Amino acid sequence: MTSPTTHGPDVTVRVFTQRFSSTPRGARLARRLALHQLDRWRIPYGSETSDAAGLLVAELAANAVTHGRVPGRDFELTLAHTPGALLRIDVSDTRGERRPAAVAPGPLDEGGRGLVLVEALASRWAVLDRVPVGKTVRAELDLGPGPRSRRTAGVP
Fold first, then answer.
1. Of all residues in the chain, what percent carry a pLDDT higher than 90?
2. Distances (CA, A) of 72 to 112, 128, 148
3. HSE (CB half, 13 Å, CA atoms) of 22?
4. Residue 20's closest CA among 75, 69, 57, 62?
5. Selected residue with higher pLDDT from 19 and 95
6. What contacts 12, CB < 8 A, 6 or more positions away?
7. Taking the CB of residue 156, how many other CB atoms lie within 10 A of it?
């Protein structure tokens, strides 16, 4: 006896991956190329999703350059887009021992607001181990109907 075959809708996942120098210029370039790629994937520049993704890439890339930099090593940006469902932003660096955490800064603190911004914009975000060395900070934006869900305790 054979089991019935069910056919669901085809799912296309588009992926963009690029390495950048661990410099402020590399972080700016990562944001610009991410916005350009999203526009090619029909997420228009200036749309709510494009603006949120641009801010997320900018913050995660700046963190990789500032806190995850190892001399002579690049950081990596990966965008994965499932149309109508999900946009995943991964920023990887080679410094696994320095893991970010969203902690509300004090009113006089000069920094520490970046991950608060990530938490506010992303549907979910997490820090993952990167094999063989380093870490990946992942932020996801839900693209389906309805408001974006709040951050959950980790991203698979």
1. 55
2. 26, 22, 38
3. 18
4. 75
5. 19
6. 82, 83
7. 8
- Total count of residues recorded for the chain: 156
From residue 101, how far is each of 61, 105, 112 by CA, in Å?
15, 11, 10
The 10 Å CB-count burial string (b at 16+, else e) for 41-77 is eebeeeeebbebbbbbbbbbbbbbbeebbeeebbbbb
> Is this model's pTM higher than 0.85 or not?
no
Q: Distance (Å, rounded) from C-alpha 147 to C-alpha 154?
A: 19
pLDDT at 90: 97
Of the listed ranges 11-15, 25-29, 75-79, the least confidently predicted one is 11-15
Q: 């839900």: which residue's tokens?
A: 142
Structure tokens at 110: 């000069």
Amino acid at site 73: R
